[in-house]
Amino acid sequence: MPRLVRRLSAVALAAGLLMLTGCGLLGGASPDASPNDKVEKSTIRVGRLALVDAIPLHIAIDKGYFEAEGLKIELSTMGRGSDGVDKLAAGELDVGLTSYPQPLIAHTKGVAKLKVVADAVETTPDLILAVVKENGPITDARQLAGKKIAISSKRGISELVMTDQLTSMGVDPKAVSFISMPITDMPAALGRGDVAAAIIAQPPLEEAKQQGAMKLLDPFTGPTVSFPWSGWFATEQFVRDNPRTVDAFRRALSRGVTNVSDRNVLEQSAVKNLGTKEGTARMMTVPRFPSTTDPVRLQRVADLLAKYGEIPKVDSPQGVRAELDMRSMVLPPLPPALWATTTTGN
């Protein structure tokens, strides 16, 4: 009888363990649950643009920096930065790469409450250009009145800075038609004459120049020189629910940033991960990849958006300022030892 009791007890214990496992109390329930104790969510969905902006991410993936943090990156590619904002709002991405205006507009309008996880790119001369057909009819930016200009996202950063540049030239920006399309489609659209000009970033810019596109204007000069171009964003809820995951992502990405100071590493990653031709990679202009996320620097974007009525503004002795204080969107810095200042040139 005691032997039978022991056998029945063992069976009951095994059944109980199976039930606990099935309910997730032993870590096997939710597909989103992390299989390690480093992070809350071990697989995160990241949206990138096929631009030089994404290279630190790819380097961090290739060198195993995310894996070392207990993270697996499920990567998808977007044609426009605004796609990233839409996918974050819909819960289809955990982290997305996009230029700054769209997420700031969405945040202030309550469409998606967002946080800047990390700064991505600051412009350098000739990084992003307004280009036209070589030997075409447009030779001066003032001639763009009444014409079509290709941009990546409506109300995005290209439209914002071009609006500012045209206004300073005495051209009414409302006289220009901004046409949204993926950056990779712009060279062909320019060649067909579908648009009179296009605002193109690297590396597609270098490819467009090789196909006969000619520089008309560098929009990131004067008041918009060394301007914040793009960043990595997540929703406030994701950051709140997954603080260790977000910090792990930031640490791995920052290690990728330290690697882009080596031009050879940067070019090799562009060829491997962006599909850039080797000759194009050697020729392309590269940005500054900030190693810290400075809300004072990012405030320049918010204030320019406020100047043109895209987000609420307040009057100040310094002129029009955004009601949005970028300190409210930027995460506290990681310990300084984990970041290294990295500036790359041509």
Automatic annotation (TrEMBL):
Pfam families: NMT1. Residues 54-258 form the SsuA/THI5-like domain. The keyword Repeat does not apply. SUPFAM superfamilies: Periplasmic binding protein-like II. Keywords: Signal. It is found in: Periplasm. Belongs to the bacterial solute-binding protein SsuA/TauA family. This is ABC transporter substrate-binding protein. It comes from Kibdelosporangium philippinense.
